Amino acid sequence: MSDARLEENKRTVLAFYRAAIDDKDHAAAAALLGDRYVQHNPRIADGAEGLREFVDTLRADFPHLRAEVKRIFAEGDHVVAHVRGVRVPGGPATAIVDVFRLEDGRIVEHWDVMQQVPEESRNPNGMF
């Protein structure tokens, strides 16, 4: 895969974060999906309608939720992002690793792993 395609895939994922998480704009986020969207997070249904339900829930329950992408990597048809999420301003952060698979520049599959950032750490390294 060309470097240009890898960079384009990263831009697509960043636009998806902005639309779905920060702006809670289902239409803009869904425009970045492929013909099918397979979701591996058990709390979210497959497809654009599953994404709509998720975005609606975020808008209602966490209107100030923000995702700060700290690192983003692309290899082949996958993009991996290391993200700091904050549901409520001043609240605890969540460390997130999202994995997206793209086809023809569109997101077709998603996995995630999330962990609340603890208040104390046994090392000085931080999670980000």
From TrEMBL:
Pfam families: SnoaL_2. Residues 13-110 form the SnoaL-like domain. InterPro entries: Cyclase_SnoaL-like, NTF2-like_dom_sf, SnoaL-like. This is Nuclear transport factor 2 family protein.
